[in-house]
Amino acid sequence: MNKNKLVRLLVVIIGTIIMGIGIEIIVLANQGFDSVSTLILGLMNFSPIPFGRWSQLISLFFLLITFLYKRSMLGIGSIINTLLVGETISRTASWLQTVSFLQENVFASLAGFMVMALGTALYLSGGLGSGPLEGMMFCVCDKLDVSLQKGRILLDFLIVACGFLLGSSLGIGTLFAIFLLGPMIQFIFSIIQKMQPIDFQQRSKKEQLSD
Fold first, then answer.
1. How far apart, in whole angstroms, are the C-alpha atoms of residue 164 and residue 186?
2. Backbone angles phi, psi at 196, to 5 degrees
3. Which long-range contacts (CB under 8 A, 24 or more apart) does 206-209 make?
4. What mean pLDDT is predicted for residues 136-149?
5. CA distances from 144 to 36, 71, 140, 153 (A)
6. C-beta neighbour count of 164 within 10 angstroms
7. DSSP assignment of the chain
8. What contacts 24+ positions apart, CB below 8 Å, involve 204-208?
9. Which pTM does this prediction carry?
């Protein structure tokens, strides 16, 4: 593995860990959740499986659908994201729960979505494969012939609806997830792209073409 790919791999790992921390903050804030967390909290009403493990199972399911329909979107980063997000949530939950500011707080919820957006943007900047939810988004867009923005909103809405029907609660955080998370990810991603060294970007593009 050359130095450029090693750097990208580290970026993917760090971004995934930050993403998991952001998700746990959102859950602790309890003001409404991102779409997948809404679904997981609904499923937990019918199963003793913990949150982090559910995250891994759902991610694997999304990954399988993407593999069957649009496998070109996947890479080593997809596997890292699938496994490491849930593991991060499981391992950070105990100490994040001791931070009183994060409990039942709308500002903590917004901060959690910002942390999640930062982690997602970092992960995507590594260019080593889409995450499970991003892969599903591209599948939906291709199947329904809609834009990425409309496809993401539709996918999030459907996942949130499933979680709600399973007994999960909704709140202002749900609106953050559907309408603010995507733009925040795009904004942070554009900043990261501008901050990357020119030779790093050029090598990444050449490697993507060769892949």
1. 27
2. -65, 140
3. 207/4, 207/5, 208/127
4. 82
5. 21, 18, 6, 13
6. 16
7. --HHHHHHHHHHHHHHHHHHHHHHHHHHHTS---HHHHHHHHHTTS----HHHHHHHHHHHHHHHHHHHHGGG--HHHHHHHHHHHHHHHHHHHHHTT-GGGTT-HHHHHHHHHHHHHHHHHHHHT-S---HHHHHHHHHHHHHT--HHHHHHHHHHHHHHHHHHTT----HHHHIIIIIHHHHHHHHHHHHHHHS-HHHHHHHHHHHHH-
8. 204/4, 204/8, 204/127, 207/4, 207/5, 208/127
9. 0.82
Amino acid at site 45: N
What are the backbone angles phi and psi of residue 122, rounded to the nearest 5°?
Answer: -60, -45
Longest Cα separation, the chain = 51
DSSP letters for 16-34: HHHHHHHHHHHHHHTS---
Average pLDDT, integer, range 116-136: 89
Average pLDDT over residues 70-77: 87
Q: How many residues does the chain have?
A: 211
Does residue 69 surpass a pLDDT of 80?
yes
C-alpha dist (Å) from residue 37 to 25, 33, 145: 11, 6, 27
Pair 34, 113: CB distance under 8 Å: yes
89 vs 25: CA distance, rounded Å:
9
**pLDDT for res 202:** 45
